[in-house]
Amino acid sequence: MPTIVIPTALRAYTDNQTSVKVEASTVGEAIQQLAERFPKLKPHLFNEQGRLRSFVNLYLGDEDVRHLQGLDTPLNEGDELVIVPSVAGGTATHVPTPGRHAPPGQSESPALSDWRHLIDDTRLQSVSLSQEEVLRYSRHLIMPEVTMEGQKRLKAARVLLVGAGGLGSPVAMYLAAAGVGTIGLVDFDNVDYTNLQRQILHFTSDVGRPKLQSAIEKIQAINPHVHVIPFETRLTSENALDILRDFDVIVDGTDNFPTRYLVNDACVLLGKPNVYGSIFRFEGQASVFWATHGPCYRCLYPEPPPPGLVPSCAEGGVLGILPGLIGLVQATETIKLILGKGEPLIGRLLLLDALAMRWRELKLRKDPNCPVCGENPTIRELIDYMEFCGLRGEEAPITTDELPSITPRELKERLERGEPLVILDVREPFELEISRLPNALHIPMGQVAERVHELNPADEIVVMCRSGGRSAQITRLLQAMGFRRVKNLAGGINAYAQEVDPSLPVY
Ligand SMILES: [Zn+2]
Fold first, then answer.
1. 298: CA distance to ligand 1 center in Å?
2. For the whole model, what pTM was predicted?
3. CA of 481 to the centre of ligand 1 (A)
4. Cα Rg of the chain (Å, integer)
Protein backbone atom coordinates (compact mmCIF):
# COMPACT_ATOMS: atom_id res chain seq x y z
CA MET A 1 0.00 0.00 0.00
CA PRO A 2 1.25 3.54 -0.73
CA THR A 3 1.94 5.80 2.25
CA ILE A 4 1.07 9.48 2.66
CA VAL A 5 3.58 11.42 4.80
CA ILE A 6 1.80 14.02 6.95
CA PRO A 7 3.68 17.26 7.80
CA THR A 8 3.67 18.46 11.42
CA ALA A 9 1.41 21.39 10.65
CA LEU A 10 -1.38 19.00 9.65
CA ARG A 11 -0.87 16.23 12.22
CA ALA A 12 -3.37 17.79 14.60
CA TYR A 13 -6.01 16.66 12.09
CA THR A 14 -4.71 13.10 11.65
CA ASP A 15 -4.70 12.09 15.34
CA ASN A 16 -0.96 12.88 15.34
CA GLN A 17 -0.19 10.15 12.82
CA THR A 18 3.01 10.94 10.94
CA SER A 19 2.11 8.78 7.98
CA VAL A 20 -1.05 7.10 6.76
CA LYS A 21 -1.32 4.03 4.56
CA VAL A 22 -3.96 4.18 1.84
CA GLU A 23 -5.36 1.71 -0.66
CA ALA A 24 -5.24 3.84 -3.75
CA SER A 25 -3.97 3.52 -7.29
CA THR A 26 -3.65 7.25 -8.04
CA VAL A 27 -2.57 10.38 -6.15
CA GLY A 28 -6.11 11.78 -6.41
CA GLU A 29 -7.64 8.65 -4.88
CA ALA A 30 -5.07 8.66 -2.10
CA ILE A 31 -5.74 12.27 -1.11
CA GLN A 32 -9.51 11.78 -1.31
CA GLN A 33 -9.22 8.71 0.92
CA LEU A 34 -7.10 10.63 3.40
CA ALA A 35 -9.67 13.44 3.55
CA GLU A 36 -12.50 10.95 4.08
CA ARG A 37 -10.67 9.18 6.86
CA PHE A 38 -9.85 12.46 8.61
CA PRO A 39 -12.77 14.83 7.95
CA LYS A 40 -11.15 17.64 9.96
CA LEU A 41 -8.20 17.55 7.57
CA LYS A 42 -10.41 17.99 4.52
CA PRO A 43 -10.80 21.81 4.67
CA HIS A 44 -7.02 22.10 4.91
CA LEU A 45 -6.54 20.14 1.68
CA PHE A 46 -9.53 21.13 -0.43
CA ASN A 47 -11.34 24.44 -0.98
CA GLU A 48 -15.12 24.88 -1.01
CA GLN A 49 -15.23 23.87 -4.67
CA GLY A 50 -13.53 20.57 -3.82
CA ARG A 51 -10.26 21.51 -5.52
CA LEU A 52 -6.90 20.93 -3.92
CA ARG A 53 -5.79 24.11 -2.15
CA SER A 54 -3.04 26.21 -3.72
CA PHE A 55 -0.78 26.12 -0.66
CA VAL A 56 -0.48 22.33 -0.49
CA ASN A 57 2.16 20.69 -2.66
CA LEU A 58 2.23 16.94 -3.26
CA TYR A 59 5.48 15.14 -4.00
CA LEU A 60 6.03 11.58 -5.15
CA GLY A 61 9.68 10.69 -4.66
CA ASP A 62 11.50 13.96 -5.33
CA GLU A 63 9.05 15.06 -8.01
CA ASP A 64 6.10 17.43 -7.76
CA VAL A 65 3.04 15.48 -8.99
CA ARG A 66 2.11 18.45 -11.18
CA HIS A 67 5.10 17.49 -13.30
CA LEU A 68 3.98 13.87 -13.43
CA GLN A 69 0.30 13.32 -14.21
CA GLY A 70 -1.18 15.50 -11.47
CA LEU A 71 -3.91 13.80 -9.47
CA ASP A 72 -3.98 11.00 -12.07
CA THR A 73 -0.37 10.02 -11.28
CA PRO A 74 -0.37 6.27 -10.58
CA LEU A 75 0.73 5.03 -7.15
CA ASN A 76 2.46 1.73 -6.58
CA GLU A 77 3.02 -0.50 -3.59
CA GLY A 78 5.56 1.12 -1.25
CA ASP A 79 5.32 4.62 -2.83
CA GLU A 80 5.61 7.59 -0.49
CA LEU A 81 3.43 10.61 -1.22
CA VAL A 82 4.67 13.66 0.73
CA ILE A 83 2.45 16.66 1.54
CA VAL A 84 4.54 19.86 1.62
CA PRO A 85 2.51 22.72 3.08
CA SER A 86 3.47 26.37 3.64
CA VAL A 87 4.25 27.44 7.21
CA ALA A 88 4.92 31.04 8.21
CA GLY A 89 7.98 30.46 10.32
CA GLY A 90 9.81 28.90 7.52
CA THR A 91 7.61 26.23 5.95
CA ALA A 92 4.93 26.71 3.36
CA THR A 93 1.92 24.74 2.08
CA HIS A 94 0.82 25.31 -1.49
CA VAL A 95 -0.36 23.29 -4.44
CA PRO A 96 -0.81 25.45 -7.52
CA THR A 97 -3.49 24.10 -9.83
CA PRO A 98 -2.43 21.40 -12.27
CA GLY A 99 -1.40 22.69 -15.66
CA ARG A 100 0.13 25.89 -14.35
CA HIS A 101 3.59 24.46 -14.66
CA ALA A 102 5.82 23.35 -17.47
CA PRO A 103 4.93 19.90 -18.82
CA PRO A 104 7.32 17.06 -17.99
CA GLY A 105 10.41 16.93 -20.11
CA GLN A 106 10.90 20.68 -20.32
CA SER A 107 14.32 21.89 -19.20
CA GLU A 108 14.30 22.47 -15.47
CA SER A 109 17.08 24.90 -14.70
CA PRO A 110 17.59 27.52 -17.38
CA ALA A 111 20.92 29.33 -17.40
CA LEU A 112 22.24 27.86 -14.15
CA SER A 113 25.67 28.25 -15.67
CA ASP A 114 26.54 31.87 -14.98
CA TRP A 115 25.54 32.20 -11.33
CA ARG A 116 29.18 32.04 -10.25
CA HIS A 117 30.06 35.69 -10.77
CA LEU A 118 28.20 37.40 -8.00
CA ILE A 119 31.25 39.46 -7.00
CA ASP A 120 32.75 41.03 -10.10
CA ASP A 121 36.47 41.47 -10.70
CA THR A 122 36.53 45.22 -10.12
CA ARG A 123 35.22 44.78 -6.60
CA LEU A 124 37.55 41.86 -6.03
CA GLN A 125 40.57 44.00 -6.89
CA SER A 126 39.48 46.69 -4.47
CA VAL A 127 39.99 44.49 -1.37
CA SER A 128 43.09 43.14 0.31
CA LEU A 129 43.74 41.16 3.49
CA SER A 130 45.89 42.38 6.39
CA GLN A 131 48.37 40.05 8.10
CA GLU A 132 45.93 39.60 10.97
CA GLU A 133 43.22 38.62 8.49
CA VAL A 134 45.53 36.18 6.70
CA LEU A 135 46.17 34.45 10.03
CA ARG A 136 42.49 34.53 11.02
CA TYR A 137 41.36 32.96 7.73
CA SER A 138 44.33 30.63 7.25
CA ARG A 139 42.17 27.46 7.35
CA HIS A 140 40.17 28.92 4.47
CA LEU A 141 43.19 30.14 2.52
CA ILE A 142 44.71 26.67 2.30
CA MET A 143 41.53 25.16 0.86
CA PRO A 144 41.56 24.93 -2.93
CA GLU A 145 37.85 25.86 -2.98
CA VAL A 146 38.53 29.15 -1.20
CA THR A 147 42.16 30.38 -1.47
CA MET A 148 43.12 34.05 -1.25
CA GLU A 149 40.77 34.88 -4.11
CA GLY A 150 37.76 33.32 -2.41
CA GLN A 151 38.55 35.00 0.88
CA LYS A 152 38.70 38.35 -0.94
CA ARG A 153 35.33 37.57 -2.50
CA LEU A 154 33.94 37.00 0.99
CA LYS A 155 35.42 40.29 2.17
CA ALA A 156 34.03 42.18 -0.83
CA ALA A 157 30.58 40.59 -0.39
CA ARG A 158 27.55 42.37 1.03
CA VAL A 159 24.91 40.13 2.61
CA LEU A 160 21.57 41.32 4.00
CA LEU A 161 19.89 39.37 6.79
CA VAL A 162 16.18 40.04 7.08
CA GLY A 163 15.55 39.31 10.76
CA ALA A 164 18.08 38.94 13.58
CA GLY A 165 16.14 36.18 15.31
CA GLY A 166 16.24 32.38 15.22
CA LEU A 167 17.49 31.92 11.65
CA GLY A 168 19.38 35.22 11.55
CA SER A 169 21.43 34.33 14.66
CA PRO A 170 23.48 31.40 13.34
CA VAL A 171 23.68 32.95 9.87
CA ALA A 172 25.10 36.20 11.27
CA MET A 173 27.61 34.43 13.52
CA TYR A 174 28.99 32.10 10.85
CA LEU A 175 29.07 34.72 8.09
CA ALA A 176 30.93 37.06 10.45
CA ALA A 177 33.39 34.35 11.44
CA ALA A 178 33.92 33.39 7.77
CA GLY A 179 34.90 36.95 6.92
CA VAL A 180 31.93 38.29 4.96
CA GLY A 181 32.93 41.95 4.70
CA THR A 182 29.56 43.68 5.01
CA ILE A 183 26.50 42.35 6.82
CA GLY A 184 23.24 44.31 6.72
CA LEU A 185 20.64 43.55 9.39
CA VAL A 186 16.95 44.42 9.28
CA ASP A 187 15.11 44.11 12.60
CA PHE A 188 13.06 46.38 14.83
CA ASP A 189 12.35 44.05 17.77
CA ASN A 190 13.70 44.03 21.30
CA VAL A 191 15.16 40.88 22.85
CA ASP A 192 12.54 38.98 24.82
CA TYR A 193 12.96 36.14 27.33
CA THR A 194 11.10 33.78 25.01
CA ASN A 195 13.73 34.43 22.29
CA LEU A 196 16.65 33.05 24.29
CA GLN A 197 15.74 29.37 23.75
CA ARG A 198 16.83 29.61 20.09
CA GLN A 199 18.14 33.09 19.14
CA ILE A 200 21.71 32.43 20.20
CA LEU A 201 23.00 35.81 19.08
CA HIS A 202 21.23 37.31 22.13
CA PHE A 203 22.20 36.67 25.73
CA THR A 204 20.20 36.81 28.96
CA SER A 205 21.73 40.20 29.74
CA ASP A 206 20.35 41.53 26.42
CA VAL A 207 16.68 41.04 27.36
CA GLY A 208 14.86 44.32 26.76
CA ARG A 209 17.55 45.74 24.45
CA PRO A 210 17.08 46.22 20.69
CA LYS A 211 18.09 43.08 18.80
CA LEU A 212 20.17 45.16 16.41
CA GLN A 213 22.35 46.55 19.20
CA SER A 214 22.85 43.11 20.66
CA ALA A 215 23.59 41.66 17.20
CA ILE A 216 26.16 44.31 16.28
CA GLU A 217 28.07 43.74 19.53
CA LYS A 218 28.22 39.97 19.06
CA ILE A 219 29.20 40.18 15.39
CA GLN A 220 32.01 42.60 16.15
CA ALA A 221 33.18 40.49 19.07
CA ILE A 222 33.41 37.50 16.71
CA ASN A 223 35.12 39.47 13.94
CA PRO A 224 35.98 43.20 14.18
CA HIS A 225 36.74 43.27 10.43
CA VAL A 226 33.05 42.94 9.58
CA HIS A 227 31.20 46.12 8.69
CA VAL A 228 27.63 45.92 10.02
CA ILE A 229 24.89 48.09 8.51
CA PRO A 230 21.80 48.17 10.76
CA PHE A 231 18.29 48.94 9.51
CA GLU A 232 16.13 49.39 12.59
CA THR A 233 12.84 49.19 10.76
CA ARG A 234 10.16 46.84 9.57
CA LEU A 235 10.78 45.84 5.95
CA THR A 236 7.93 47.37 3.92
CA SER A 237 6.91 47.77 0.30
CA GLU A 238 8.08 51.39 0.58
CA ASN A 239 11.62 50.72 1.81
CA ALA A 240 12.42 47.17 0.62
CA LEU A 241 13.90 47.96 -2.80
CA ASP A 242 16.12 50.73 -1.39
CA ILE A 243 17.38 48.49 1.42
CA LEU A 244 17.95 45.37 -0.69
CA ARG A 245 19.46 47.11 -3.72
CA ASP A 246 23.00 47.46 -2.35
CA PHE A 247 23.41 43.83 -1.26
CA ASP A 248 24.61 40.79 -3.20
CA VAL A 249 22.72 38.08 -1.31
CA ILE A 250 19.51 38.36 0.71
CA VAL A 251 18.97 35.86 3.54
CA ASP A 252 15.31 35.41 4.46
CA GLY A 253 14.99 34.86 8.20
CA THR A 254 11.44 36.15 8.51
CA ASP A 255 8.68 34.51 10.52
CA ASN A 256 5.57 35.71 8.71
CA PHE A 257 4.00 35.40 5.26
CA PRO A 258 3.70 39.11 4.34
CA THR A 259 7.46 39.70 4.80
CA ARG A 260 8.33 36.42 3.10
CA TYR A 261 6.39 37.37 -0.06
CA LEU A 262 7.79 40.90 0.13
CA VAL A 263 11.39 39.61 0.32
CA ASN A 264 10.72 37.21 -2.57
CA ASP A 265 9.14 39.79 -4.86
CA ALA A 266 11.79 42.43 -4.10
CA CYS A 267 14.55 39.89 -4.87
CA VAL A 268 12.87 38.93 -8.16
CA LEU A 269 12.46 42.58 -9.19
CA LEU A 270 16.11 43.31 -8.34
CA GLY A 271 17.48 40.03 -9.73
CA LYS A 272 19.01 39.07 -6.35
CA PRO A 273 19.41 35.59 -4.85
CA ASN A 274 17.07 34.93 -1.91
CA VAL A 275 18.46 32.34 0.50
CA TYR A 276 15.31 30.92 2.05
CA GLY A 277 14.76 29.09 5.32
CA SER A 278 11.67 28.37 7.35
CA ILE A 279 10.94 26.46 10.52
CA PHE A 280 7.98 24.98 12.37
CA ARG A 281 8.20 22.84 15.52
CA PHE A 282 10.80 20.28 14.40
CA GLU A 283 10.47 20.66 10.65
CA GLY A 284 12.36 22.99 8.38
CA GLN A 285 12.71 23.99 4.73
CA ALA A 286 15.56 25.60 2.86
CA SER A 287 16.23 26.60 -0.73
CA VAL A 288 17.86 29.27 -2.86
CA PHE A 289 15.33 31.25 -4.89
CA TRP A 290 16.96 33.19 -7.68
CA ALA A 291 14.59 34.04 -10.50
CA THR A 292 17.47 34.85 -12.87
CA HIS A 293 18.63 31.23 -12.66
CA GLY A 294 15.67 29.23 -11.34
CA PRO A 295 12.36 29.30 -9.50
CA CYS A 296 11.22 31.83 -6.89
CA TYR A 297 9.16 31.31 -3.73
CA ARG A 298 5.96 32.09 -5.63
CA CYS A 299 6.73 29.36 -8.18
CA LEU A 300 6.45 27.00 -5.18
CA TYR A 301 3.67 28.79 -3.30
CA PRO A 302 1.87 31.34 -5.54
CA GLU A 303 -0.38 32.41 -2.66
CA PRO A 304 -0.24 32.27 1.13
CA PRO A 305 -2.72 30.14 3.06
CA PRO A 306 -5.66 32.08 4.46
CA PRO A 307 -4.97 33.46 7.97
CA GLY A 308 -5.70 30.96 10.72
CA LEU A 309 -5.54 27.85 8.55
CA VAL A 310 -1.85 27.26 9.22
CA PRO A 311 -0.59 27.86 12.77
CA SER A 312 2.13 30.46 13.24
CA CYS A 313 5.44 29.76 14.97
CA ALA A 314 4.28 31.66 18.05
CA GLU A 315 1.22 29.41 18.25
CA GLY A 316 2.91 26.18 17.17
CA GLY A 317 6.27 26.55 18.85
CA VAL A 318 9.67 25.64 17.48
CA LEU A 319 12.42 23.33 18.71
CA GLY A 320 15.31 25.55 19.80
CA ILE A 321 18.01 23.87 17.71
CA LEU A 322 15.95 23.84 14.51
CA PRO A 323 16.80 27.42 13.42
CA GLY A 324 20.42 26.41 13.99
CA LEU A 325 20.16 23.50 11.55
CA ILE A 326 18.25 25.44 8.89
CA GLY A 327 20.18 28.69 9.47
CA LEU A 328 23.44 26.87 8.85
CA VAL A 329 22.11 25.54 5.55
CA GLN A 330 21.37 29.18 4.66
CA ALA A 331 24.83 30.33 5.79
CA THR A 332 26.47 27.53 3.76
CA GLU A 333 24.50 28.43 0.63
CA THR A 334 25.33 32.12 1.08
CA ILE A 335 29.05 31.39 1.26
CA LYS A 336 28.90 29.06 -1.78
CA LEU A 337 27.09 31.75 -3.79
CA ILE A 338 29.77 34.30 -2.88
CA LEU A 339 32.64 31.91 -3.63
CA GLY A 340 30.97 30.77 -6.84
CA LYS A 341 31.72 27.18 -5.86
CA GLY A 342 29.77 23.96 -5.63
CA GLU A 343 26.16 23.30 -6.50
CA PRO A 344 23.69 25.79 -5.03
CA LEU A 345 20.21 24.82 -3.76
CA ILE A 346 18.68 26.60 -6.78
CA GLY A 347 15.72 24.53 -8.02
CA ARG A 348 15.86 22.22 -5.01
CA LEU A 349 13.87 22.33 -1.79
CA LEU A 350 15.47 20.73 1.23
CA LEU A 351 13.06 19.43 3.89
CA LEU A 352 14.22 18.48 7.36
CA ASP A 353 12.29 16.40 9.88
CA ALA A 354 14.53 16.74 12.95
CA LEU A 355 12.47 14.29 14.98
CA ALA A 356 13.24 11.52 12.51
CA MET A 357 16.52 13.28 11.58
CA ARG A 358 15.63 12.82 7.97
CA TRP A 359 16.38 15.19 5.08
CA ARG A 360 14.44 15.04 1.84
CA GLU A 361 15.31 16.82 -1.36
CA LEU A 362 12.54 17.83 -3.74
CA LYS A 363 12.82 19.27 -7.24
CA LEU A 364 11.51 22.78 -7.83
CA ARG A 365 10.81 24.13 -11.27
CA LYS A 366 10.32 27.64 -12.52
CA ASP A 367 6.63 28.26 -13.18
CA PRO A 368 6.19 29.96 -16.57
CA ASN A 369 2.92 31.37 -15.19
CA CYS A 370 4.49 32.66 -11.97
CA PRO A 371 2.88 36.05 -11.23
CA VAL A 372 6.24 37.66 -10.46
CA CYS A 373 9.01 35.73 -12.29
CA GLY A 374 6.98 34.03 -15.06
CA GLU A 375 6.81 34.87 -18.76
CA ASN A 376 4.01 37.42 -18.37
CA PRO A 377 4.32 38.71 -14.82
CA THR A 378 1.33 40.52 -13.34
CA ILE A 379 3.34 41.82 -10.38
CA ARG A 380 5.80 44.44 -11.63
CA GLU A 381 6.18 46.43 -8.43
CA LEU A 382 5.83 45.73 -4.72
CA ILE A 383 2.23 45.40 -3.51
CA ASP A 384 0.38 45.60 -0.17
CA TYR A 385 1.53 42.33 1.43
CA MET A 386 -0.67 42.52 4.51
CA GLU A 387 -3.67 42.70 2.25
CA PHE A 388 -2.29 39.99 -0.05
CA CYS A 389 -1.97 37.67 2.96
CA GLY A 390 -5.48 38.54 4.12
CA LEU A 391 -4.20 40.18 7.30
CA ARG A 392 -5.46 43.73 6.85
CA GLY A 393 -8.63 43.02 8.78
CA GLU A 394 -6.76 41.52 11.73
CA GLU A 395 -4.63 44.61 12.13
CA ALA A 396 -7.48 47.06 11.78
CA PRO A 397 -8.63 48.03 15.28
CA ILE A 398 -12.28 47.94 14.22
CA THR A 399 -12.35 44.12 14.30
CA THR A 400 -11.16 43.86 17.88
CA ASP A 401 -13.47 46.71 18.88
CA GLU A 402 -16.40 44.74 17.58
CA LEU A 403 -15.31 41.69 19.53
CA PRO A 404 -16.83 41.72 23.01
CA SER A 405 -13.94 41.48 25.42
CA ILE A 406 -13.11 41.63 29.10
CA THR A 407 -9.87 42.86 30.67
CA PRO A 408 -7.94 40.73 33.17
CA ARG A 409 -8.73 43.27 35.92
CA GLU A 410 -12.48 43.19 35.21
CA LEU A 411 -12.43 39.41 35.16
CA LYS A 412 -10.68 39.22 38.52
CA GLU A 413 -13.12 41.68 40.11
CA ARG A 414 -16.12 39.83 38.78
CA LEU A 415 -14.75 36.46 39.91
CA GLU A 416 -14.10 37.87 43.37
CA ARG A 417 -17.70 39.09 43.53
CA GLY A 418 -18.70 35.50 42.85
CA GLU A 419 -20.47 36.25 39.57
CA PRO A 420 -21.47 33.10 37.66
CA LEU A 421 -19.02 33.30 34.75
CA VAL A 422 -17.99 30.28 32.71
CA ILE A 423 -14.31 30.49 31.78
CA LEU A 424 -13.56 28.53 28.63
CA ASP A 425 -9.84 27.79 28.25
CA VAL A 426 -9.13 26.84 24.60
CA ARG A 427 -5.41 26.14 24.96
CA GLU A 428 -3.76 22.76 24.38
CA PRO A 429 -3.59 20.33 27.36
CA PHE A 430 0.20 20.73 27.81
CA GLU A 431 -0.23 24.48 28.22
CA LEU A 432 -2.35 23.91 31.32
CA GLU A 433 0.74 22.48 33.00
CA ILE A 434 2.37 25.90 32.62
CA SER A 435 -0.45 28.05 33.98
CA ARG A 436 -4.19 27.78 34.55
CA LEU A 437 -7.14 29.56 36.15
CA PRO A 438 -9.15 27.63 38.75
CA ASN A 439 -12.52 26.23 37.68
CA ALA A 440 -11.97 26.89 34.00
CA LEU A 441 -13.65 24.57 31.51
CA HIS A 442 -11.01 23.22 29.16
CA ILE A 443 -11.79 22.49 25.50
CA PRO A 444 -8.84 22.79 23.09
CA MET A 445 -9.50 25.19 20.23
CA GLY A 446 -9.74 22.45 17.60
CA GLN A 447 -12.49 20.61 19.53
CA VAL A 448 -14.80 23.52 20.37
CA ALA A 449 -17.01 23.13 17.31
CA GLU A 450 -17.73 19.44 17.94
CA ARG A 451 -18.04 19.81 21.74
CA VAL A 452 -20.19 22.93 21.68
CA HIS A 453 -23.04 21.00 23.36
CA GLU A 454 -20.98 21.15 26.57
CA LEU A 455 -21.63 24.90 26.63
CA ASN A 456 -24.87 26.61 27.57
CA PRO A 457 -25.77 29.62 25.39
CA ALA A 458 -27.56 31.14 28.37
CA ASP A 459 -24.30 31.35 30.35
CA GLU A 460 -21.95 34.28 30.24
CA ILE A 461 -18.77 32.74 28.77
CA VAL A 462 -15.26 34.20 28.90
CA VAL A 463 -12.98 32.57 26.32
CA MET A 464 -9.25 32.57 27.10
CA CYS A 465 -5.98 31.32 25.64
CA ARG A 466 -2.30 32.27 25.99
CA SER A 467 -2.34 35.80 24.58
CA GLY A 468 -5.83 36.38 23.17
CA GLY A 469 -5.49 35.33 19.51
CA ARG A 470 -6.99 31.86 19.56
CA SER A 471 -9.68 32.91 22.03
CA ALA A 472 -10.68 35.78 19.70
CA GLN A 473 -11.25 33.24 16.91
CA ILE A 474 -13.32 31.03 19.21
CA THR A 475 -15.29 34.02 20.49
CA ARG A 476 -16.22 34.79 16.87
CA LEU A 477 -17.02 31.12 16.21
CA LEU A 478 -19.33 30.94 19.24
CA GLN A 479 -20.99 34.21 18.23
CA ALA A 480 -21.60 32.77 14.79
CA MET A 481 -23.15 29.70 16.47
CA GLY A 482 -25.62 31.91 18.29
CA PHE A 483 -23.92 32.50 21.64
CA ARG A 484 -24.87 36.05 22.64
CA ARG A 485 -23.08 36.34 26.00
CA VAL A 486 -19.55 35.39 25.00
CA LYS A 487 -16.46 37.54 25.65
CA ASN A 488 -12.77 37.32 24.85
CA LEU A 489 -10.20 37.66 27.65
CA ALA A 490 -7.99 40.42 26.22
CA GLY A 491 -4.30 39.46 26.28
CA GLY A 492 -5.04 35.92 27.50
CA ILE A 493 -3.66 34.27 30.60
CA ASN A 494 -0.32 35.99 30.06
CA ALA A 495 -1.95 39.42 30.47
CA TYR A 496 -3.86 38.06 33.49
CA ALA A 497 -0.55 36.97 35.01
CA GLN A 498 1.10 40.31 34.32
CA GLU A 499 -1.77 42.53 35.41
CA VAL A 500 -3.52 40.80 38.28
CA ASP A 501 -1.87 37.57 39.36
CA PRO A 502 1.95 37.67 39.41
CA SER A 503 2.04 34.16 40.94
CA LEU A 504 1.26 32.81 37.45
CA PRO A 505 4.20 32.39 35.03
CA VAL A 506 4.21 34.15 31.67
CA TYR A 507 5.21 31.97 28.69
ZN1 LIG B 1 8.42 32.59 -9.61
1. 5
2. 0.78
3. 41
4. 24
CA of 227 to the centre of ligand 1 (A): 32
Q: Which of 394, 412, 441 lies at the terminal end of a domain, its last residue?
A: 394
In a shared domain, residues 266 and 385 = yes
Does the annotation mark 465 as catalytic? yes
* CATH classification at residue 77: 3.10.20.30
**Ligand 1 center from residue 172 Cα (angstroms):** 27
Question: What would the pLDDT profile of 245-283 be if each residue is shown by its tens digit?
Answer: 999 999 999 988 899 999 999 999 999 999 999 998 899
Whether residue 505 lies inside any domain: the answer is: no
- Of the candidates 361, 362, 378, 348, the residue with the CA atom closest to the CA atom of residue 112: 348
Residues 325 and 407 in one domain: no
B/e letters for 99-138, b = 16+ CB within 10 Å, e = fewer, are ebbeeeeeebbeebeebeebbeeebeeebebeeebeebbe
- Is residue 126 situated within a structural domain? no
Distance 261 CA to ligand 1 centre (A): 11
296 given a catalytic annotation: no
275 neighbors 243 (Cβ within 8 angstroms): no
Indicate which residue of 267, 299, 389, 465 is catalytic: 465
Which among 313, 370, 373, 389 is annotated as catalytic? 313
Is 487 a member of any domain?
A: yes
- Count of alpha carbons within 13 angstroms of residue 230, beta-carbon side: 15
Number of domains into which the chain is organized: 3
